[in-house]
Write a structure and sequence with these properties.
alpha/beta; 7-stranded mixed beta sheet; 27 strands; elongated
């Protein structure tokens, strides 16, 4: 041993029972371990036994060899975890050999010490265990053990990385374990805060607008000045008829931009307004809002799908001053040859729908067909000089590019009216509901400085789950989805608005903007059906948290089930998706075409524009392979020249893809029951 220890760097001593574990290190590496025992003599404590350790075996050596080892060492370190009595004993022994100057008590990792490793820790590098401090490596291992012990042994990847990151940040293992057991420690769950921001914009006074007297008086009764995004729009040609793409966060007032432009043109005899939204629920709500706010000035009508909803007896009136409709509702009117009259303003709300795989191409085609229809009428009558187009969105990644292809002026306002705290916590499917209940209760029991109780929107991925969660919440809550009838949905909207409900539980499909003034948004799932949310969809949904007239701040909770996916086709896990969404950049809004989408939109363009179909295709945002699509239409017998065949007319009226059309034709030939034939189509169209 004397040859091995000529240049000893460090001797580390750690109490183990009545003896000491000795670790000898050189250049940061362990040379060997030994057990040291002291006994009391007339000269004080002295080495009584010294045994080299090799695994479970021990080799007895002369006790004086420890003294020789200590003399050769550059430093001697004594673990602070050694009891005060044993530390005094060891220090007194070293003093007896004039070695006390080499000795120093240090904080070490107790797990490492027990395993015969010398791992000094500091308050900057250590992690607190239940009662002690341990090194980061041991803390990671202990966290993994706790995960396994808690039944969360499958926690890997992004979830595990997040938990380790939090543990090292707060330096407290037990707090992380408590988090896994459902304790909502806000300092640990908080991922970040989106700060409230307000760009400096000189507000436009309402009394300076010089609008039609009816609208001017109405606005002056409501406001003294316009909000920043509204002021920017006015200063950039809103009332001069300029087309605009208005991009600003939820609750910043962009909807009024479209309303002011359209109503002013209506009242000044410059054509009717179309206000278009992606979903029936939004159209119903917007129709009701227009009736309440502007019904004494203008006639308002509703057009959704093929008018298949149960309403209060109102029927679609194409001669109304204002038509509120879904994209498909207005497109259906164009595809079936209905005359929408003189259109002066078209407002497309939620224009980022253009990027959606299923519906984006239909909105793209609708815009092209509607522009063509407006231009043809203006050319024939030379009355209004064409329509003004206003596009609205809260979430667009490529604003300048989108404004360019829409041939509109970009009005972009970076504002967040209230701050939003974003939180992440981990739980399995059943534990999620317990956490949601706790969050909903805590929020509803809190009142803002404006006098409003906190209310919650919970987003999940299925209608069944909506009902399951709402039943299990202790405070009054309700499911809200497209499968509910119109009357029930209106009742839920009213109850939420009157603060009779603590929460609504809804599907991601209705995230687009039904006006639930919530202070808190909870993501029960990060999927929409069996597809993960996009960054754009995620931001659209979380943007529902916090309203400036109601709340002081918004809260967002993302509940993540580690290593979970909802379908075998989903490549990522929920924890991986969570941090991708929280850290990701907004996707670009652009429409992409596969063969079915190209065939459907080209057929609709033939129905509306005849020989002008190629021109309609060319002006759409996405690249449509027109020649190929025309060839397929001829092959499928959907068109004859540039006229739709009877089959083609049926296909375009019902928004069918070629595959669906052929399935129907085949079913008819096989005399399938009509209910079986229409079931798939109705299920597909239920949200239109």
């Amino acid at each position: 041993m004397s040859q091995q220890v000529q240049d000893v760097e460090t001797i580390f001593c750690h109490q183990t029972g009545d003896d000491y574990l000795v670790v000898v290190q050189q250049d940061g590496k362990r040379l060997f371990r030994a057990k040291l025992g002291l006994s009391e003599t007339s000269a004080g404590p002295r080495p009584a036994k010294f045994r080299l350790k090799d695994g479970s075996s021990e080799e007895p050596r002369q006790p004086d060899e420890f003294v020789e080892l200590a003399r050769r060492a550059k430093r001697i370190r004594i673990s602070e975890q050694t009891s005060p009595e044993k530390r005094r004993e060891l220090t007194e022994m070293l003093s007896g050999y004039q070695l006390e100057d080499k000795a120093k008590a240090v904080r070490t990792c107790r797990y490492c010490a027990s395993a015969g490793r010398y791992s000094p820790v500091t308050t900057d590098t250590a992690v607190k265990d239940d009662t002690d401090w341990i090194c980061r490596d041991c803390a990671r291992q202990e966290l993994e053990r706790q995960l396994s012990f808690s039944g969360s042994g499958a926690v890997t990847g992004a979830a595990k990385e997040r938990l380790e990151e939090l543990m090292l940040e707060v330096q407290d293992l037990q707090r992380i374990v408590n988090l896994l057991q459902g304790q909502l420690d806000p300092d640990l769950t908080q991922f970040d805060t989106i700060s409230a921001t307000t760009d400096e914009v000189d507000p436009v006074r309402v009394d300076s607008l010089n609008l039609h007297p009816g609208l001017q008086g109405l606005l002056e009764d409501r406001f003294e000045t316009l909000l920043p995004v509204q002021s920017l729009s006015v200063e950039n040609g809103l009332f001069e008829g300029d087309d605009q793409l208005v991009v600003s966060a939820t609750a910043t007032g962009k909807t009024l931009v479209g309303e002011m432009a359209g109503l002013n043109r209506v009242l000044n005899g410059k054509g009717k307004m179309l206000f278009l939204v992606p979903l029936v629920a939004l159209a119903n709500q917007k129709h009701e809002d227009f009736e309440d706010e502007y019904g004494h000035l203008v006639d308002v009508s509703l057009r959704v799908g093929a008018s298949r909803i149960t309403d209060d007896g109102n029927r679609f009136d194409p001669d109304a001053d204002v038509i509120v409709g879904t994209y498909e509702g207005i497109d259906h009117a164009l595809r079936t040859g209905k005359d929408l009259g003189n259109i002066g303003t078209v407002v497309i709300d939620e224009v980022h729908t253009l990027k959606e795989e299923e519906r984006g191409h239909r909105l793209d085609g609708l815009i092209s067909r509607l522009k063509y229809t407006c231009e043809q009428r203006a050319a024939r009558r030379d009355e209004y000089g064409g329509a003004q187009w206003i596009y609205l969105s809260a979430t667009v990644g490529n604003t300048e590019q989108l404004a360019e292809v829409l041939e509109s002026k970009l009005i972009e306002f970076e504002e967040r009216p209230v701050p939003i705290e974003r939180h992440v916590t981990f739980a399995d499917g059943q534990e999620k509901v317990r956490i949601e209940n706790k969050l909903v209760k805590r929020e509803f029991d809190t009142e803002s400085s404006k006098g409003y109780r906190g209310q919650t929107i919970i987003f999940t991925n299925s209608r069944r789950r909506c009902h399951e969660i709402s039943r299990k919440l202790e405070y009054s809550a309700a499911p809200y989805h497209a499968g509910l009838d119109y009357g029930r949905r209106k009742q839920v909207e009213r109850q939420f608005g009157e603060q009779e409900l603590s929460a609504v539980v809804t599907t991601a499909a209705l995230a687009a903007g039904v006006d639930f003034p919530a202070s808190q948004v909870i993501f029960d799932s990060l999927a929409m059906g069996i597809e993960w949310l996009s960054v754009q969809e995620f931001h659209q949904m979380l943007g529902r948290a916090g309203r400036p007239d109601y709340h002081d701040e918004g809260k967002v909770y993302v509940l993540v089930e580690p290593d979970c996916s909802y379908h075998g086709s989903m490549e990522m896990t929920e924890d991986e998706v969570a941090f991708k969404l929280l850290k990701g950049e907004m996707e670009s809004v652009m429409t992409h075409y596969d063969e079915d989408a190209a065939v459907e939109e080209t057929l609709a363009n033939v129905v509306v524009g005849g020989k002008a179909a190629k021109r309609l295709n060319d002006r759409m945002l996405g690249e449509v392979p027109t020649k190929h699509a025309i060839g397929k239409l001829l092959e499928y017998d959907f068109i004859d020249g540039f006229e739709p065949t009877p089959l083609g007319q049926v296909v375009t009226r019902h928004f069918l893809s070629p595959g669906e059309a052929f399935a129907l034709v085949d079913g008819i030939r096989k005399e399938a029951h009509p209910y079986d034939l229409i079931a798939d189509i109705e299920l597909r169209d239920e949200d239109l």
